[in-house]
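Figure caption, in words: inputs first, then the predicted bound structure.
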Amino acid sequence: MKIGVIGGGNMGGAVASGAIAAGVVAAADVAVSHARPLLVENLEKIGVTVRLTRDNREVVHGADIVIVAVKPWLMEGVLAEIAPVLDRQRQAVASVAAGISFEQLAAYLECDQRGAVGLYRIIPNTAISLGQSMTFIARHGTTPQQDEAVMQLFGALGEAMEVNEAQMPAVTALASCGIAYAFKYVDAAMTGGERLGLPREESLRIVLRTVRGALAMLEANGTLPQVEIDKVTTPGGITLKGLEAMERNGFSQAVIEGLLASK
Ligand SMILES: NC(=O)c1ccc[n+]([C@@H]2O[C@H](COP(=O)([O-])OP(=O)(O)OC[C@H]3O[C@@H](n4cnc5c(N)ncnc54)[C@H](OP(=O)(O)O)[C@@H]3O)[C@@H](O)[C@H]2O)c1
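Bound structure (NAP present):
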């Protein structure tokens, strides 16, 4: 598989370097435009070089999958720029921009005039930089071979799940925005630790280990969170008092409202 990445920033850079590090693509089969210094540093760390350019059309040349990782407001201009040079029978275009529909992508790529092209909408989260992303993939007019290649690529960068376009807002809220909400819990727990008299750094270490342990239990036991909560709480005990205080202050409702607001 040959990939072209347009926009080598946080997302594009993580995909390019992560895919090479995971061994799903060879460095020689990767081209990136507008690479930021972080990508160059990461490539140096793993001892490889890729084709770097400022020319988006050059990135398209030879690629099987063209991943467009520019800010949403730049998407229209960039897709119009590459529209004339796409091989629509062979190549597919993957957009990582949240909120831009297949209909809009097809319009930007002038599919009515120039012909249809296989499209993906891809929603990773920032943990893709560590190969730990929860990534969602919706497809439109692609081939089974392209689908397999894209699932393999993003599967190597964490977990990849296929969704339909209508599910995109919900999964974006839960995982792409949701990683910030997970950080928010860690941040609030650190502040709680400080109020209990612990130094901030120590609180962070304790919260990280605790959250990691909780996730490991859910995964290993295959249980729902409430089952594990019940194991910690005893009637009249301190955990129950803590949980009740959290709910009095709207903890669960705040999380739900946050997710609904980010849809
Ligand atoms: N970060 C996230 O959590 C996240 C999650 C899901 C989806 N996304 C989506 O991913 C996309 C990229 O986000 P990001 O966080 O990676 O942004 P970013 O770090 O700012 O990277 C954007 C990249 O696009 C390049 N660029 C700017 N203008 C360009 C042009 N005309 N042609 C080609 N490349 C150009 C930039 O290069 P210069 O240095 O030259 O400006 C930079 O390399 C966005 O659409 C965002 O919505 C992000």
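The first strand starts at residue 3 and ends at 8.
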